[in-house]
Design brief:
This protein is of the alpha/beta class and 460 residues long. Helices cover 32% and strands 25% of the residues. The chain has 2 domains: 102 residues, Urease, subunit C, domain 1 (Roll), CATH 2.30.40; 296 residues, Metal-dependent hydrolases (TIM Barrel, Alpha-Beta Barrel), CATH 3.20.20.140. The chain contains 15 helices and 22 strands.
């Protein structure tokens, strides 16, 4: 029987980490789904020649803050087909999805977020993270009840997970965090957590921070995902990975992620930068901090000045060997923690996945190509699919899967974004399809494309 498919990706090296498929195939796509994978030729209304290219599932970024067209375009060029805001999340799930429905380049989704809910209940003028009472004041019993109610409503309305930034809401009591974990457990939602602790310098180093959230997970039964282990843990990363592995060996559902760069980024108004001892705890000085707006390295004077404006600052603080340990660990998926505004920000937004494929896989050979694809696509899908059945159709190149696909040149793929030019697109990402629609074709972004769909847990 000779079927005519909407789109055929022809003669690419198809790689699927779940099934282990690694061979030259034709992929037939109809109505936004993969409907055929064939060793023989398939016929389509349109055909994409992928000869010499690797064809894999599009990448699923579980930690994407820049949820707008500018950031979606930059991330699509890096092979990202689903951008999920799971650390900060949203205070109003219906409104958040409604703003993007029908107009998005890539798939999108959000968690019910403890940070924005706390900023709503305890009014705070901060942008992404709190800079006033929501950071520095404990909640009253009445406020805590409202916080819990809002998060529960967010999960009922389809929030993918529960997001936490405990390092930013430093006055949130241990009990408040436990109570939010209890809500997550009730709805079988993963807790995506930026923990309190940092590095190996106390009080409250990253070992203690990890103990807090592991205890909350064990007490409540909630699933746990530690965000950006390398920037939070730094020298403690080997110990944190050991703690995660030990918890998993005892039946706990704990995972983590990293991005492949040696610098982090945050808002200058972040609570942990207001600590008088921040330089000691982070192991950096003013000159290790880079103001994204100008690229200048800070001084005591400019640090004080820019703290008043609350813009973004890059922190060069992660040892190179720690980046290697985090990226290559079998426990970590890849996420960007990405955010650009008017082309300014961190190169991780534009280059994380191409950097893994080019620098870590091809140039250095410390990660296999199949493992890199697993970390970028299958692992994020599996992290969420227990609660969100739609994720079972993502992160795979299989019949029945969503046609969120990339085709890249394994001999050429590399990130080009830098701290000076963080929005530069990578080289070698040739084709990107979202729900069967090309959003990058021949390396060129397709202007006006809006095939992205909501990734949302069924509304209860």
């Amino acid at each position: 029987m000779n079927n005519l498919y909407d789109v055929v990706i022809s003669r690419g090296r198809v790689m699927d980490p779940e099934s282990g498929l690694d061979g030259v195939r034709d992929v037939g796509i109809t109505d936004g789904r993969v409907v055929a994978i064939s060793e023989g030729a398939l016929e389509g209304r349109s055909t994409i020649d992928a000869t010499g290219l690797v064809v894999s599932s599009g990448f699923i970024d579980m930690h994407s803050h820049g949820q707008n067209r500018e950031n979606y375009e930059v991330q699509a060029r890096d092979g990202v087909t689903s951008c999920l805001e799971l650390e900060v999340g949203a205070a109003d799930i219906d409104a958040w999805y409604g703003e993007r429905e029908g107009s998005s380049l890539v798939n999108f989704g959000a968690s019910a977020g403890h940070i924005p809910v706390r900023m709503k209940v305890i009014p705070d003028p901060g942008n992404i993270v709190p800079i006033a009472d929501a950071a520095y004041r404990e909640s009253t019993d009445e406020e805590m009840a409202e916080i819990l109610g809002d998060i529960e409503r967010g999960l009922q309305r389809g929030g993918l997970a529960v997001g936490f930034g405990i390092a930013y809401t430093i006055a949130a009591s241990r009990w408040e965090i436990l109570e939010v974990f209890r809500v997550a457990a009730k709805y079988d939602a993963v807790c995506h957590v930026h923990m309190r602790g940092s590095g190996l310098i106390g009080p409250m180093d990253s070992i203690e921070g990890m103990e807090e959230i592991l205890a909350a997970s064990a007490i409540t039964g909630a699933r746990l995902h530690l965000v950006h282990i390398s920037s939070t843990g730094r020298q403690a990363v080997p110990k944190l990975l050991q703690m995660i592995e030990e918890a998993r060996s005892r039946g706990m559902d704990v995972t983590t992620e990293c991005y492949p760069y040696a610098a982090g980024m945050t808002e200058m108004g972040a609570a942990f930068l207001a600590d008088d001892d921040w330089q000691t705890k982070l192991g950096i000085s003013y000159e290790d901090m880079e103001w994204t707006e100008t690229g200048e390295r800070l001084t005591a004077r400019t640090f004080a000045e820019y703290s008043e404006t609350n813009g973004m600052v890059i922190m060069h603080m992660i040892p190179a060997d720690i980046v290697d340990i985090a990226v290559t660990s079998p426990l970590t998926s890849i996420a960007t923690d990405g955010y650009l505004e008017d082309g300014k920000g961190h190169p991780r937004t534009a280059g994380s996945y191409s950097r893994v494929l080019g620098h870590f896989v091809r140039e250095r050979g410390i990660l296999t190509l199949m493992d890199a694809l697993r970390k970028s696509s299958l692992m994020p899908a599996q992290r969420l699919e227990h609660r969100t059945p739609a994720m079972k159709r993502k992160g795979r190149v299989q019949v029945g899967a969503d046609a969120d696909l990339v085709a890249f040149d394994p001999d050429r793929i590399i990130d080009r974004a830098t701290y000076a030019e963080p929005a530069l697109p990578p080289d070698g990402m040739v084709h990107v399809l979202v729900n069967g629609v090309p959003v990058v074709s021949g390396g060129v972004l397709q202007e006006g494309a809006t095939p992205g769909r909501p990734v949302r847990t069924p509304v209860s």
